Structure formats: C-alpha cells, structure tokens
Amino acid sequence: MENSRTKQASLQADYCGYFISSTAQQNESGAWVPRVEVTLRGRPITLSPECPNLAQPTGEEAVRKALAWARHRIDGRELPVSDNRNRLLSKKQ
After folding, report:
1. In this protein, which residues make up the domain named DUF6566 (predicted)?
2. Is 59 inside any structural domain?
3. 36, exposed or middle or buried, with CB in 10 Å at 0-12, 13-18, 19+?
4. Rounded mean pLDDT of the chain?
5. Dihedral-angle region of residue 9 (phi above 0 means left; psi in -120 to 50 means alpha; beta otherwise)
6. Rounded-to-integer distance, Cα 75 and Cα 16, Å
7. At 61, which CATH number?
8. How confident is the model over 6-30, as pLDDT tens digits?
9. Which of 19, 36, 64, 79 sits at 20 to 30 Å (Cα–Cα) from 10?
10. Which residues 6+ apart lie within 8 Å of 4 measured at CB?
C-alpha cells in the first residue's frame, strides 16, 4: 500500500495463474502513476496494449485501477489449464 515517505504504493495479486504486481509513484504534479508487471510461472508476460494512463489522486486508487486493468487484459488472453502446464485454453472457446 501507500508509503508517504518514498511516495510509492504497491499491490500484488494472484489471478488465474498469473502474478500481478502493481506499483505507483507520485509525479511532480501530485498525481499517482501506476506501473504493472505480470508474470506466468515466473516469466514476464507482456499485456497488449500497454497500460493506459491511469494517474489517480491517491496511490491506493492508482494500484487498484492498474490491477483491475491487468485482470481485464488477462481475461482476454489465453489462460493456462491447471491439469496440463503445456496446454492453453482460450476463454473465447
């Protein structure tokens, strides 16, 4: 969560086999700008398109919005099937 001394906030979550890490830093105008990193089995995953400008008035809001954005992008991707690490199943099937 928010750390006023370093002007950073963070939030992590496991979601559908992915690990999402969201951090936010306060910019010079006072807005909190998030950054999202997603991994699957320890490997970085690129979510496309890139994270939009989700600047928010608080660090907690920024990391929550970034986490929601990442979950939404993951929902549109191919997801791992739990019984077979090598098989992927599209949610749209």
Report:
1. 13-77
2. yes
3. buried
4. 78
5. beta
6. 9
7. 3.30.160
8. 578 898 999 989 999 999 999 999 9
9. 79
10. none
In a domain, 92, yes or no: no
The pTM score is 0.71
- pLDDT confidence band for 3 (50 / 70 / 90): low
Pinpoint the alpha helices (H) of 1-93: 59-75
**Amino acid, res. 77:** R
- d(CA 17, CA 83) in angstroms, rounded, equals 12
- Smallest CA-to-CA distance from 47 within 35, 58, 59 is with 35
Q: How many domains does the chain have?
A: 1
Domain coverage including residue 27 = 8-78
